[in-house]
Structures are given as structure tokens and as C-alpha cells.
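hey so i finaly got around to running the thing on Phage portal protein from Clostridium tagluense. pasting the sequence first so u can double check i didnt mess up the copy paste, my clipboard has been acting weird all day
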Amino acid sequence: MSNSFINWMKSFLGVGQTTVNMTATAISTEQQLAIEIFAIHTAINLIASSISKCEFKTYAKGVEVKGETYYQWNIQPNLNQNSSQFLQELITKLLFNNEVLVLPIGDQLIIADSFFQEEFAIKENIFSNITKGTLTFQKVYNMSDVYYYKLGNTDIRALLSALVAGYNKLLNMSINKYKRSGGRKGILDIDSTASNDKKFQEKLDTLMNQRFKRYFEAENAVLPLDKGFKYDEKNGEGSKKSTSEIADIAIITKEIFERVAQAFKIPPALLRGDIADIGATTGNYLTFCVDPLVDMIGEENNRKSYGKAAFLAGNYMKVDTTTIQHISLFNISESFDKLVASGGYSIDELRVKAGDVALNMDFSKKHWMTKNYQDIENLEGPVKGGEI
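ok and heres what it spat out for the C-alpha cells, dont ask me to read them lol
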């Protein structure tokens, strides 16, 4: 109990018997619930976890290969992280800060904690004062020396926090209203005998911070009072919990999650955890949220790791997002058959996409096509109906 509050109480009470309404808010200070932080963390964790499941495929002259670059992005980017940890950190910092810087140090990729960028119009930007943990890099890096990922010119998270702040205030008002509707209330009478006592402040402090606290927290308790203090419990119909406050909290929480989902282009149902029509919801999530992010990452990697000449010669990196979705063999058996029969994919290619290993046999590497898919001009004899 602060002295300022005690002084206010004494000035309010004055001389003679006075009645003071006591509520739970006078006993302790409740922290405000920052629901937007929880919603933003939920959204970012969802996106980061999804992209960490992607496969960074590498190609040489149009043929898929697995070399140093593949191992670096899919297995071990640096000595202290595996690829999943690295990508989760990268996406989290990208979405929180609207930008992220990755330094190629030897055969390692290091995500910077902070940096300063000096921008130019017609020449390369430069990066300095780069830190990672307790280490500060003294070197000044050109744009061509680093991987720099940026979402856009607007800090979505900052704008989102400002937007959601209003919802957050409404939510805290609803929570406080709910607490008050079911809280224990009473009236504390303090007469002049107690207020004129030299130890009044000490007694009041002990009563408010210790005795009342134990009394309200205990299931069954007796409250000892000094001379001049009288407490009268006031519990009635008004103290019962109301379903309207609970409904208000649920509605506002849902609105906050929908605004956050909208900002990150996540289907609101997916962020809330609804499983109805999960197939279509996941498809929209991959198309409008994940694909633009991995396309931006892939473009930056291609221009920095390969360059124009190598890229045009068929040497490039492609981020495969099909690995995000869980595939059940029993659910895709019919589609598997159609893809093989139409010649679109070989057996090995589909086995890999289904999460299995390639057979690496001559027949499994071939592309097959049934006669149902022949060119109509190559069919023998005229096309007729009925039996021949």
C-alpha cells in the first residue's frame, strides 16, 4: 500500500465515522491482458513453423541436385542451428521487424540481431554495425555480400498493434467488468477512534495488505479487526457472474484474432484452430500467405547465390511448399495413379512427394502413359462407337 494512497484515504475519511467501499481492485493491481501480443505470436509461429517444413531444392542445368547449398539450407545452415531452427528464427524476425539480414560467413549462414543500413539510389546499399549475440562485426558489407529480406515499406506489426489497441482496451474493460460482477464486496467502517490513533497508518496498512488479502483468498476465514474498524460483507445478486461478460470477452478476442489473421493473410478459421473445411482453408493459407514469402526468399537467394548468367543457364534454387501439408497415402492413391498414368510424374518423383524414398530403378524413373492419353491423331483406325 503506497503512502500516497494512505494519505488520500486519511484526507477522504476526515474526522468522525466514515464509510469506504472496498473492492478487489483496492486490494491488488491487476495486469492488463495484452491479447494482441498473443495473437501476433500465434500467427507468426504458425507461418514460421510452416515455412520451416519447406524443402529448398537446388538445380544445375535444369536437373535437381543435392550439393553444398542444398545441405546448407535443408540440414545445417550454421554450427549452432539446424535448418528448422534457422528458418523459424529468420521468418520470426522478418515478420516482427519487417526485415532480416543474413550474413554468409564461410560456409555458415548467420542471422543478424541488429544492423544499420545506408541506402543509395544507384549503387549498392551498405550494412554496418551488425551484431549477433555479443559479437559485433567490424566489416562493412555491400548488398551483394548478404541476404537481405524485406516485406515492404510498411511495418505491418506496428500498424496492427495500433489497430488492435482499441480492441485490447475493450477486452480489458470486459474482463474487469466480469471480475467485478463476481467479486467479493464489503463496507469498511473507520470511526474517529481509529483514525486519530498514532498507529493508524500502520494498522490500516496491515489490514489492507495482509489481513484482507488472506481473508479474500481463503475458502473459510475469520477477519480480526482492531478497535475502530468494522467490516460488513455485501454479497448479493449483483455479485453473480453474468454470461454477457463472458460473451463480450469471446467476441472481442475473436475480432482481434481476425484482424491479426487479416494482416498476415492467414484464413481466420485456421488461426483460431477451426477444422471445418480445412482443405480449402489450408489452400488459401498456402496461396496468399506462405507462397509470397517463400517466393521473395527464393528470389533473393537466386540473385545472390547464383546470379543472372547461372540462373539463365538453369542453375537456381526453388522453395517447395508442397512439403508443408501432411499426405496420407490412402487419400492420394487415386490421384497417384492418375499422375503416373498421364505421364506427368515418374513413380520415384511421386514417392518422394509422398514422403517415401525413391526406388531408383529403371522403371521407376521412367514416365508412363496409358493408351487413354494418346494423341487422337495417332490412334489406329477410325474412331467409331459400338463394337467392331
